[in-house]
Each structure stands twice: as C-alpha cells, then as structure tokens.
Amino acid sequence: MQSNTILSDVSTSSNIDGKTIHIKYTMTFPADSYVIYGGLDVDQDVATTAFKGATATDMYAGFKTLILATLNKESGASE
After folding, report:
1. Which of 13, 36, 62, 65 has a CA that sits 20 to 30 A from residue 3's CA?
2. Which domain of life does the protein's organism represent (predicted)?
C-alpha cells in the first residue's frame, strides 16, 4: 500500500507538554483519487524514528510508514 501513496505535506511541532510531537499531514492515494488530511500526537522517540526513516529516494518514507501504521491500527484494519 505504501508504494502507491504520496505524502504531499507533513509538518511537525512540539506540544506544550514538551514530551510529544504533533504531526499534521496530507496523504494522497492517486490510484483511488483519495486525499486525506489529519494529525496525530506521538512521543518524541517515535517522531525521531520517523525522521530517520528517510531514504535516498523518499525523504518522507518514515512518516509514511508511521501514518499508515497509525491509520491501520486506529481503523482496526489488518494487511
């Protein structure tokens, strides 16, 4: 599923608690013409892992993985 998704916008900001990060995103699924917008709060170590997930060809790869995993978990879906 990740290969046919485009993370066209992602921004991060520290929450007031100083321990969590708020992530806002726009993700597009071109094959199905779906666009989703959302936000989630994660621990700093989770956000750091997402930043480290960048690849030479996809700087957002770690964030795609995080967002898709969160959507799957929250929806009760399984792959």
Report:
1. 13
2. Bacteria
CB neighbour list of residue 64: distance below 8 Å, 6 or more residues apart: 2, 5, 7, 27, 58
Nearest by Cα to 12 from 55, 65, 50:
50
Does this model's pTM top 0.85? My answer is no
- Which tokens hold the place of 32? 């199905």
Q: SS3 for 73?
A: helix
DSSP 10: E
The CA-to-CA distance between both ends of the chain, in Å, stands at 9
